[in-house]
């Protein structure tokens, strides 16, 4: 059985009976990277959050999500808390909201790692990941309050936290959208260098170049549905669904326009 098996997942807004995610299925093996692409509002974030039990109670998840043979749909909040950080780590689009503004960054990192590491080890691990994230002056970042760091720095702190947790699944929802291109490239190189058979990554991105360079498999979402799920080479070379073709064509047209400008 695959490491992650998502079968017929639907997410319904109980208040309006709107079905926001419809019958999405995909599988992921340990060591693989899944890219999720699709236009804004197509259900990418809701699907990711369903894997972490992070959607509000009025959004009801049906279907099956099995991580390492454990069924996640229907878990209690207490059970979700044990899963988050231990089995699955998440990187959100917005680094600023991920941290408590009243607590220094270092203390929040150490708190998140305390189950596995002593305070001293947690600090050492944190500083190591800060350096890998290209955060100059890791000690200063460690001692800073969130508001003293830029959005891009906080984003890198959040990625450092997800990686330091050493979970077997990392879900990254637009992890680099707040970063400048230089740091985007560095983080993507880092994600690529971390590819091994010990962890899997799900990455949501509007940047098809990022997905093409990292992903082994791709899920294309449109209006809440998974319209195509394929290996990355198949999806990028011979997309089957008309919407996948449209997404790739749009991207190509943008690159051509850029290349015409810099020629
Ligand atoms: N908390 C919520 N309550 C009700 N509806 C929601 C909620 N969050 C998202 N939705 C709706 O569900 C649909 C899918 O939203 P989702 O955030 O998953 O899209 P997305 O593909 O991640 O978009 P983006 O690329 O802009 O982040 C949208 O129609 C959105 O308005």
What secondary-structure arrangement, pairings included, does this model have?
Elements: E1 4-13, E2 18-28, E3 33-37, H1 44-50, E4 59-67, E5 70-71, H2 77-83, E6 88-91, H3 105-113, H4 119-132, H5 138-143, H6 151-164, E7 169-173, H7 181-193, E8 200-204, H8 208-214, E9 217-222, E10 225-231, H9 232-237, H10 242-262
Parallel strand pairs: 3-8, 3-9, 6-7, 7-8
Antiparallel strand pairs: 1-2, 1-4, 4-5, 9-10
Bound molecules: adenosine-5'-triphosphate (ATP).
Structural description of this entry:
There is one protein chain. This protein has a 6-stranded mixed β-sheet with strand order 6-7-8-3-9-10, sandwiched between helices. It has a 4-stranded antiparallel β-sheet with strand order 2-1-4-5, covered by helices on one side. It has 10 helices and 10 strands. It has a domain at 1-87 and 200-263: P-loop containing nucleotide triphosphate hydrolases (Rossmann fold, 3-Layer(aba) Sandwich). It is globular. By secondary structure, it is of the alpha/beta class. It has helices spanning 44-50, 77-83, 105-113, 119-132, 138-143, 151-164, 181-193, 208-214, 232-237, 242-262, and strands at 4-13, 18-28, 33-37, 59-67, 70-71, 88-91, 169-173, 200-204, 217-222, 225-231. The protein starts with a strand and ends with a helix. The longest helix is centred in the last third of the chain and has 21 residues, at 242-262. Adenosine-5'-triphosphate (ATP) binds at residues 13, 20, 38, 40-46, 56, 59.
């Amino acid at each position: 059985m695959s490491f992650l098996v998502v079968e017929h997942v639907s997410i319904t807004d109980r208040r309006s009976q709107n079905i926001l995610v419809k019958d999405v299925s995909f599988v992921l093996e340990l060591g693989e990277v899944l890219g999720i692409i699709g236009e804004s509002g197509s259900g990418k974030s809701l699907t990711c959050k369903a894997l972490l039990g992070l959607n509000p109670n009025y959004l009801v998840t049906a279907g099956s999500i099995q991580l390492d043979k454990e069924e996640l749909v229907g878990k209690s909040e207490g059970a979700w808390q044990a899963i988050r950080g231990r089995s699955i780590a998440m990187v959100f689009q917005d680094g600023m909201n991920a941290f408590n503004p009243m607590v220094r960054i270092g203390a929040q990192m150490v708190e998140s790692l305390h189950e596995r590491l002593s305070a001293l080890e947690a600090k050492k691990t944190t500083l190591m990941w800060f350096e890998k994230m290209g955060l100059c002056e890791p000690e200063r970042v460690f001692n800073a309050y969130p508001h003293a760091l830029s959005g891009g720095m906080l984003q890198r702190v959040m990625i450092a936290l997800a990686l330091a947790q050493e979970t077997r699944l990392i879900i990254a929802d637009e992890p680099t959208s707040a970063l400048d291109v230089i740091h985007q490239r560095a983080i993507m190189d880092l994600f690529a260098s971390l590819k091994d058979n010990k962890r899997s990554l799900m990455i949501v991105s509007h940047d098809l170049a990022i997905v093409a360079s990292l992903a082994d498999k791709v899920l294309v979402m449109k209006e809440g549905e998974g319209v195509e799920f394929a290996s990355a080479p198949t999806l990028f070379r011979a997309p089957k669904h008309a919407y996948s073709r449209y997404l790739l064509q749009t991207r190509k047209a943008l690159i051509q326009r850029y290349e015409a400008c810099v020629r």
